[in-house]
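JOB MANIFEST
job_type = single_chain_structure
chain_count = 1
residues = 655
[input]
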Amino acid sequence: PEDGVGPKLEHQLALEPFASVIRNPSLKAANGGHGMVALHTTTDDLYSRLWCVHEVERAIVEEDVEIIASMSQKYIDLMVGRVEQFLGLGATLNDCFRAAGVQDDEEKLVKLILQQANGFDGLDKVVENFRREQLPDIIFEKLIRKGLTRLDGASTSARANAAVVFAACQAHGAGQLQHATTNPEVSERIRLAGLLGNDELRWQDIEVLDLEDLQMKLIRKGLLTLDGASTSARANAAVVFAACQAHGAGQLQHATTNPEVSERIRLAGLLRWQDIEILDLEDLQMTLIRKGLEYASTSARADAAIVFAACQMHGGGQLEHATNPEVRERIRLALRGGNRFCDEKLRWQDLEVIDLEDLKLGQILRLGVRTLPELRQITKLSLAWAGEGLGAKGCKTLFGAMAQLKQITDLSLNLKGNNLGAEGGFVLSEGIVQLKQITDLSLDLGSNDLGVDGGKAVSEGIAQLKQITKLSLDLSKNDLGAEGGQAVSEGTAQLKQITDLSLNLECNHLGDESGQAVFEAIGQLKQITKLSLTLGYNKLGDESGQAVSEAIAQLKQITDLSLDLRYNDLSAEGGQAVSEAIAQLKQITKLSLDLQGNRLGDESGQAVFEAIAQLKQITDLSLDLRYTDLSAEGRKAVSEGIAQLKHITNLSLEL
């Protein structure tokens, strides 16, 4: 020993300390022994001590003792790090696997080993094999990817590891599968994945794909045909469909899908499988009806909607292929000149609710809107005809038909961008007055060049709807001017029963006087609980800001407010007035306030925040103060202040 105390090394070896332990019958595998554990630690490596290596070799070769290596994750991580470092420096395989050097205190043991059969060669062979078998699988994966070894040089565990096998196939080709002991499904996945190219997929990707998904990917890339796919894939409708898309309908001969699915795919052509899956055969045939009704199935030729679509596309001659007499009669009457449908605006769903007598009266005219009087049972109607170029004449036709819908109580009408002009405004007014039963009205008349007179007419018409409780009115970009804005105000003020109001007067050159009138009118609607007011780009100054304050102060019952005053002429004084108004809305729970593009400054910005801070019950806040002359310090103060409002659960803040 190093300190000179106790028996010398040769005397210790003479006592055969290792043999006395290894030869203990209780360790041997034949006796059901648990064997030995060779322990690696981060401070002492098993292979750095020849004593340990010798003991491992004797236990394996002579004594029938099962031995395994145990190592911590930290030790594995250090080992992986060393291997990666060696590989980065261009190390060879032998460099990576070489054991530690012999230390000074092992000289006596060297002599003993040399006296044994095969000496160090035998020890090296046994220990190297043991060491290789005990290496973590990830080490082999890295060595294989670097091209330093192949799967036949890996451990038993690594050859059964799917990720290692996949890496070997990527690096050295699919032939490596002959050395794999992975289960057949994993081997099949890897074989198929190899067709995609070395770097196309990672093992993690392969692992989450089932065989059908993987084969579908290969089929779509043109790398696999259905006859080379698995049995389950040939019965999978989505896979079969992909094969037909990639290689043609001839692939159906290899499919084992049920007949209906095969028929869907045959009809589908180039539609996606997701579309086909949710369509029944009749729906699918309607999509493909461009080929003519004679190509459809028996059930499709009896389906009214499909027959109607065929007649719209190919003319009345398609009726000879229809098999339902009543359907034939309805559609024949709906066609113009026995050939084509009048303008294709009428859908089958509309035709379906019109009985034969109505059709015979010739009430289906060139505009689909003229069928509206026939839909006598509906109480809610939504029509979107933005940008259709109706003009005043088309608008008159529309309201002439709608006047007969006496049961309608909920109407949504989008006529934005239809060049109505002042004349169209008068037509609208006359039409609206006839809808006495309406309680919920949404009317979008934006960008229609109504002007002052048109705006006045529309406002007067809406003022007659005394029973209305919910109104959404968009008159943006109509050049109303101060006079038109005043008229809108007067009309709105008469809707005393309204509880939900959305009014958009953006970009109308209202000016301060008209803006004040709008706010004064709103202030008279005492029962309103939800208000959306859009007045951006209207040159509203501080006097309008004061009017806002006075109007909002009257709305004691409001809980939901959206106020858009962006890009007006509000200064610090106007911003202060708006803030004071907001602070009075103690009952409000939802607030959207847009003041961007106004010259508020830091003081007014702070006032806005302080006002909001007083609204303890608010949970939903949207605040836009961009381009309001706030300094960096001002923006910081507002944002930090808002952040303290813990009761707010939904926040949008633009500074």
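[summary]
The mean pLDDT is 77.
The longest helix spans residues 73-88.
exit_status = 0
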